[in-house]
Specification:
This protein is mainly α and 479 residues long. It has one domain: Up-down Bundle (Amino acid/polyamine transporter I). The protein is built from 18 helices and two strands. It has a two-stranded antiparallel ribbon. The longest helix has 36 residues. It is globular, with a radius of gyration of 21 Å. The N and C termini lie close together (10 Å).
């Protein structure tokens, strides 16, 4: 039994040329918009406040910078792979081509944490903004149906109740899943409209709130450590970087759509790197202005950007920001669920998951069964978890994917240096190790409870692989 059998890159390239089951409908602009659609979401509209209040203070700006640098290293490695192997599956497919089947399975299983739980986290944030917006216009969602099960919530009449489940989160997952089943082009067009809306909201906040910045709110820039690791001081900045790193995961979701790109060799690097650079600049500006407008201590709320806008005297804008956040978070959920269904599609096509998973709809040309199953699972989990619990798991799953991709790109350069590469990672033997080490450093900064859940998740994955995947692998059948 060869657990490290690899797929040939030339075979993958030939398969990409001949496989027309998925519709190639996305250009560079669509891919960049998909990236921005996934990146600008919970990180900027929700996590900015909680990380500033609980971990880093105004130095949340540094947390965004550190997470952005780690992401840029990984983005360069992803770009080389996405242009070289333009197949659905992202890091799973890249791992299969470089490090072997067992590592590919591990990373595919790991991507469930990134994309499925990513959608869960964003759906919870979406719910918080929807409940807040509806309250502004006089509509009150029952408090017991607006938060994670068992959470104490404040009701409209001032009383406190225990939540049963998060109904708005379930509704948005159902709507996005329906759109993904209908088609990739329709999903991309919907995403483009939403991205323009949320970019307008972010830019309006930056322009409108900048005048209200009080430099005194930035002092101390890095509050002293409370005595607990991860609560202010440098350990707080690092813990914050590990958490807000979640805000950057969208760019790698772009690579899952490689099989639906018109010209993947040129368009994939443009979409991945372009979306990441645009969003990094916006994150730094927004987090700096939010902590300058008001004390970081007061930002631990579900809708911190709306609260900061209100504090800056932009009362008219607070509702607009909530609308933008609702629209923006919807597009993040769309890209996360898109990414998850494409990873499952690729794993099933390789025999590591049952055949029904890669069943394509005859009319819509989408992997509709896996989209529906993913949507149902995500809806159930999103109704029960809190943002922070899900966010940490997403971050550790993504960081592990970054480590493997950063190592994989170097392995393939050494093993097959003469492959024609439309995009080459610059200084790959410097960028690759920096990408892997910076991602590992951020992983170490996450709480031990997150590591425990990751280990349990992987043990379950290994059992599934040896009970099913290893026997049904298409590569195993060939050998």
């Amino acid at each position: 039994m060869d657990l490290f059998r690899r797929k040939s890159v030339t075979d993958l390239q030939a398969e990409a040329e001949s496989d027309h089951s998925l519709r190639r409908a996305l250009g560079a602009l669509n891919l960049t918009m998909l990236g921005i659609g996934a990146i600008i979401g919970t990180g900027i509209f929700v996590l900015t406040g909680t990380v500033a209040a609980q971990n880093a203070g105004p130095a949340v700006v540094l947390s965004f910078v550190l997470a952005g640098v780690a992401s840029i290293f990984a983005a360069l490695c992803y770009s080389e792979f996405a242009s070289l192997v333009p197949m659905a599956g992202s890091a799973y497919t890249y791992g299969y081509a470089t490090l072997g089947e067992l590592i590919a399975w591990i990373i595919g299983w790991d991507l469930v944490l990134e994309y499925a739980l990513g959608a869960v986290t964003v759906a919870i944030g979406w719910s918080g903004y929807v409940v807040s917006f509806l309250k502004d216009i006089g509509i009150h969602v029952p408090c017991t149906l607006s938060a994670a099960r068992g959470l104490a919530v404040q009701c409209a009449d001032g009383t406190t109740a225990t939540a049963i489940f998060n109904l708005p989160a379930v509704i948005i997952i159902a709507l996005v899943t329906t759109l993904l089943v209908i088609g990739i082009k329709e999903s991309a067009n919907f995403n483009n409209v939403i991205v323009f809306i949320k970019l307008a909201v972010v830019l309006l906040f930056i322009a409108g709130a900048a005048h209200a910045v009080n430099p005194a709110n930035w002092h101390p820039f890095m509050p002293a450590n409370t005595g607990n690791r991860g609560e202010f001081g440098w350990t707080g900045v690092m813990a914050g970087a590990g958490l807000v790193f979640f805000a950057y995961i969208g760019f790698d979701a772009v690579s899952t759509a490689a099989q639906e790109a018109k010209n993947p060799q040129k368009d994939m690097p443009a979409g991945i790197i372009g979306s990441l650079l645009i969003c990094t600049v916006l994150y730094i500006l927004v987090s700096g202005i939010a902590t300058g407008v008001m004390s970081y201590k007061d930002l631990n709320v579900p809708d911190p950007i709306a609260v900061a806008a209100d504090h800056a005297g932009l009362g008219w804008m607070a509702t607009f920001i909530k609308l933008g956040a609702i629209a923006g978070l919807s597009s993040v959920i769309l890209v996360m669920l898109l990414g998850q269904s494409r990873v499952f599609y690729a794993m099933s096509r390789d025999g590591l998951l049952p055949p029904f998973v890669n069943k394509i709809h005859p009319r819509f040309q989408t992997p509709y069964l896996t989209s529906i199953i993913t949507g149902v699972a995500v809806a159930i989990v999103s109704s029960l978890l809190t943002v922070r619990e899900a966010g940490n798991l997403v971050s550790i799953g993504t960081l592990l994917a970054f480590v493997i991709v950063s190592i994989g790109v170097m392995v393939l350069r050494a093993r097959e240096p003469n492959l024609p590469r439309a995009f080459k990672t610059p200084a790959v033997f410097l960028v690759g190790p920096l990408g892997a080490l910076s991602a590992l450093y951020l992983m170490v900064s996450l709480p031990w409870t997150t590591w425990e859940r990751l280990i349990v998740w992987f043990l379950v994955g290994i059992v599934v692989y040896f009970l099913y995947g290893v026997k049904h692998s298409r590569l195993s059948a060939r050998s």
